């Protein structure tokens, strides 16, 4: 076909559509609706920032109160759902929440309210599926805000540190056309329902090259005690041409502003934490050796470990935040929709007879 356009593999640097929700910006700063994500993390609450992502503006007092009430009144799951989780009894929480979300009853109607319900229930589904697996009692969420309530369900650490968790949740909220959001937009472009679109996104987020990286980071950091260990680890991985989780990014080639923010947060609250010290050594040597910056997942894993959050929750934490970004993208896609259906070049056999 003469009008074919051949694009780089993985669509690297290909602009496929426009979005007004977030950008990594010409300056390399991640902006949510024009505001720097790291500044929002420092100065705003999770609900204020989630409202901004979904609605395009920061909320006034009344809007915020309505938004919070809608979320909190839906923060419950039925006994039947708890029973199903006990039957599934699966360690991989991401698999559980993806499956439970896909079962969510969908009737054509108020799609925004459906998103609110999924957003409100996802933290509970995460925490309660872990309880079902571990045989521990389910807890009622406590605390005032969305992330504080979620923190109360999944952390065994010092509850005074919940605000550091909230900052991380804010930084995970949105990231323009990342893989899971793009999967959601492809689904939305077929005019499928929000539940199905979020199921696509959850399935895509799960992969180790995307959200799954954060749970793999701790495994290697635990074995690094000094600079010699860090060098040996990196050199071994590079020689074997293996990817090191928590490094590299499709968009951030010099620095991931979220990684630097979480690194500084850790430097403030846990400067002597052995995994933090190990992460810094690995980051410094990786940059020296390969020029690759750490991505947010390197320090997110260290932060969640320090906050007493079990590794089984790392990816669900990402999902419970990013679903608000998916919400905004679902409706943005529908506003000016064209089905996303690329072409392919064929590499199979020529037409042949049987
Ligand atoms: N470890 C070792 N080498 C790496 C890594 C890594 N983590 N990331 C990139 N590289 C190398 C590549 O091998 C390649 O080297 P080469 O030029 O010598 O062949 C070069 O850096 C460019 O990398 P690409 O693979 O082309 O980068 P791409 O944009 O396609 O991939 C990705 C980005 C998937 C994030 C990649 O860096 C990676 O696999 N990282 C590890 C997984 C990870 O941490 N994912 C989390 C991403 S952030 C998030 O989802 C919140």
General description of the model:
The chain has 354 residues and is mainly α. The protein folds into two domains: 22-209 and 309-335, Citrate Synthase, domain 1 (Orthogonal Bundle); 212-306, Cytochrome p450-Terp, domain 2. Helices cover 57% and strands 2% of the residues. It contains 16 helices and three strands. The chain has helices spanning 37-43, 46-55, 61-73, 79-88, 93-102, 111-134, 146-154, 162-171, 179-189, 194-205, 213-221, 227-239, 257-269, 274-290, 296-306, 314-335; strands at 22-23, 31-32, 35-36. The protein has a three-stranded antiparallel beta sheet with strand order 1-2-3. Helix 1 (37-43) runs antiparallel to helix 8 and helix 5 (93-102) packs antiparallel against helix 6. The relative contact order is 0.14. The model has no long low-confidence stretch (mean pLDDT 94). Bound molecules: acetyl coenzyme *A.
Set down the secondary structure blueprint.
Elements: E1 22-23, E2 31-32, E3 35-36, H1 37-43, H2 46-55, H3 61-73, H4 79-88, H5 93-102, H6 111-134, H7 146-154, H8 162-171, H9 179-189, H10 194-205, H11 213-221, H12 227-239, H13 257-269, H14 274-290, H15 296-306, H16 314-335
Antiparallel strand pairs: 1-2, 2-3
Bound molecules: acetyl coenzyme *A.
């Amino acid at each position: 076909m003469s009008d074919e356009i051949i694009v780089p593999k993985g669509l690297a640097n290909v602009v496929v559509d426009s979005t007004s929700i977030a950008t990594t910006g010409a300056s390399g700063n991640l902006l949510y609706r024009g505001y720097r994500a790291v500044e929002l993390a420092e100065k705003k609450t999770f609900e204020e920032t989630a409202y901004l992502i979904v609605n395009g503006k920061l909320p006034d007092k009344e809007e915020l109160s309505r938004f919070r009430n809608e979320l909190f009144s839906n923060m419950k799951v039925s006994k039947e759902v708890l029973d199903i989780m006990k039957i599934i009894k699966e360690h991989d929480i991401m698999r559980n929440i993806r499956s439970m979300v896909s079962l969510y009853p969908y009737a054509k109607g108020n799609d925004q309210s459906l998103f609110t319900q999924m957003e409100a229930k996802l933290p509970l589904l995460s925490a309660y599926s872990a309880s079902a697996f571990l045989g521990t009692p389910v807890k009622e969420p406590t605390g005032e805000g969305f992330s504080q309530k979620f923190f109360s369900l999944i952390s065994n650490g010092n509850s005074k540190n919940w605000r550091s968790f909230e900052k991380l949740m804010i930084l995970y909220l949105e990231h323009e056309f990342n893989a899971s959001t793009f999967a959601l937009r492809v689904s939305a472009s077929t005019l499928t329902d929000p539940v199905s679109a979020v199921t696509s996104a959850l399935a895509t987020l799960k992969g180790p090259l995307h959200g799954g990286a954060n749970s793999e980071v701790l495994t290697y950091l635990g074995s690094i005690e000094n600079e010699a260990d860090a060098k040996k680890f990196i050199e071994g991985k590079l020689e074997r041409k293996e990817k090191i989780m928590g490094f590299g990014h499709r968009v951030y080639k010099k620095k991931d502003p979220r990684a630097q923010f979480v690194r500084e947060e850790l430097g403030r609250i846990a400067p002597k934490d052995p995994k933090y010290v190990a992460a810094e050594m690995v980051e410094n040597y990786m940059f020296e050796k390969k020029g690759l910056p750490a991505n947010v997942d390197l320090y997110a894993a260290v932060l969640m470990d320090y906050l007493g959050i079990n590794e089984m929750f790392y990816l669900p934490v990402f999902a419970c935040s990013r679903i608000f970004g998916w919400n905004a993208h679902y409706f943005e896609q529908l506003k000016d929709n064209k089905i996303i259906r690329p072409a392919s070049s064929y590499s199979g056999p020529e037409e042949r007879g049987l």
